[in-house]
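REQUEST
  id: r-88c1
  op: predict_structure
  target: Cache domain-containing protein
  payload:
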Amino acid sequence: MKSLKSKMMAVIIPMVILAIGSISIFSYYFAKNIIVKNANEILIQTSQAYANKIDGWLTMHLEMIDSVKEAVEKSALAPDAELDYLKHMVNKFDNVSDLYIGTVDGQMIDGAGWIPPDDYDPRQRPWYQEGMNKDKINFSKPFLDKVTKEMVVGAVVQIDHYDGTKRGVFSGDVSLFVDELVTEFSATSEELLASLENVLAAIEGVALAANEGAEGTTDIANRICDTNDKANEVRTIVTKTKKSAEKLKVEIDRFKI
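RESPONSE
  id: r-88c1
  status: 200
  body:
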């Protein structure tokens, strides 16, 4: 009897151990896959949220600059009054470093007080040539502002005289503080902080976030990040945030039942 019991135990125990082991392994991988899936969804959703906030920030500045252009176009101010108005609006708007007009006859009217050299012709500048092709305000390619020495992007659009005849191009320079903007939106949890890598990479022009399903980030990247200088600044921030992303990955990999 004892021999039979021992034989049965010898058969049953390995089967039980195998069954428990199989269930444990299955549970481990099943639970781990759920955690990885949920973590990826958090990263994608948060990346999209940041992208939406950045896009909203950019749209807000476009609308502000366009409202100044509309006021100038419809008011028919005297030259001195017009210049005073532009100066006032430059001082009023945060992150807008200049508002200016380049005319079809080569005049330059600058709200920041910059006085161009005698040989300066706005019609030869890329922002003017780009703006002449835009009947709706939009961003130009980023460039280095000669006055502030900062990277800016111009919001450019055609501008007419009060009587409807073409006057030239209206432009407003927006300082590229997108890295600071993203930092303001950063959250405290590791999952949300890790998603900054996606957003910043998208700003740099890398479609990482888009590849993960965060639509809209590459469009923002194409709008504002066409320069190596800005890309280098973003890379510095990306490097810092990678540590947080790696922490999250380590925690997922260590998950055990």
